[in-house]
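hey can u run this one w/ 5'-deoxyadenosine bound, need the structure tokens asap thx
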Amino acid sequence: MQKYFHIVTYGCQMNVHESEKIAGMLSELGYKNCNEMTEADIVVFNTCCIRENAENHAFGNIGMLKKLKSQRRDLIIAVGGCLPQQIGKAGDLHEKFPYVDIIFGTHNLHKLKEYVQLKEKQKKSVISIEEDSGFICEDEKPLRTSYPNAWVNITYGCNNFCSYCIVPYVRGRERSRKSENIIAEAEELVAKGYKEITLLGQNVNSYGNGTDDLSFPRLLERIAKIEGKFRLRFMTSHPKDFSEELAKVISENPKICRCVHLPVQSGSDVVLKAMNRKYTAQDYKNKIAVLRKYVPDCALTTDLIVGFPGETDEDFEKTLELVRSINYSSAFTFVYSKRNGTVAAGMPEQIPEEISKTRIMKLVELVNSLTREQSLKYVGKTVEILCEGYDEKKDMYLGRDEFGRMGYFKSDKDAIGDFVNIKILKANGVSLVGERV
Ligand code: 5AD
Ligand code: SF4
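ok here u go:
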């Protein structure tokens, strides 16, 4: 009888791709994807703990499965990702949700197949959180779900220890995949017809550090030289490691999208220092000036945190000033979330929620106004969209231009995976509406 899996993913693109690897492993065991939890034989929660609300959300959803499990004793429930990887959290999960069959972490994701088989054949539950051993598994074959886009890990873990961030504790030390494996994966994806490859890592710019393998700019250049029409993106970059050499490589290789995600976090030097970001607002602006010298029309996106411990009104004003001066095309904005075990969690001046709320509202308003202004400049222009989906409600296809801007258009035939030129007729805030030309 056909068995089905259902995966619930929380958090970043890294997790979305890890869910594709989980899906690949479950497919090898004979399971097929299904959209409803109630139809599944195995439900996997791939969790994130970067902010408290992502963690609470996962806890809430796991709690809701108690009833389903009591109705269907043979349902397998697995919880993985970075939430259980935090010290003591696997035990908390087990105590709170004893009906969860498998608890695993980020360092033993590749063993999920083994754990599921133990449960299926010997009815054994597994709680296994492994320490960071620096091991990189090259055997997982992801079941990709985002055609024409494909995600490729180039580094795992992080060495930066930004004072607010839990990632280095739950994902371990930074390690790079061998360039030959990455290049082979990219070549295979292009040969299979994927049209956009995004290289993933917590800090892609430090790729290869400590080994005699290629540097990040050389790796990017090498992949951009693969024959065929496709786009190449990468994320995330740490400003301290963003180099002139990289800006040059972007300018010389048309397949590399002129769109860079460069998280700044704050515009205040005092806050940046307390965050352990290792650059000042001026250093950041200088890097952007170099990037724009080589790639004048490069779109820039960023991550911003408000309410970091000790952030004053003046500090926050500096963030607003920096956002205006860089003129980002969009930004992810976050309220600081206290993560136990990080340096910032022990800082005395935690900011009251009401102040953070007011600040985030102001910041979101500013970011939206910049996005809207830039969208309006598109009207009347023709842009090349890589079509990546169909919106049933709007009865329109959608995709992005190389700058990452979303565009909608009508098409009589299936356009998913095609590069389509559309003339922009209307700008709706973030997204654009156009017609095929
Ligand atoms: N609180 C709020 N935002 C955070 N980020 C990381 N840790 C925290 C935290 N504790 C944000 C940063 C990072 C993005 C992935 O998540 O902006 O760039
Ligand atoms: Fe977290 Fe900083 Fe590493 Fe990004 S660079 S994952 S924010 S510690």
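The longest strand covers residues 382-391. anyway lmk if its weird
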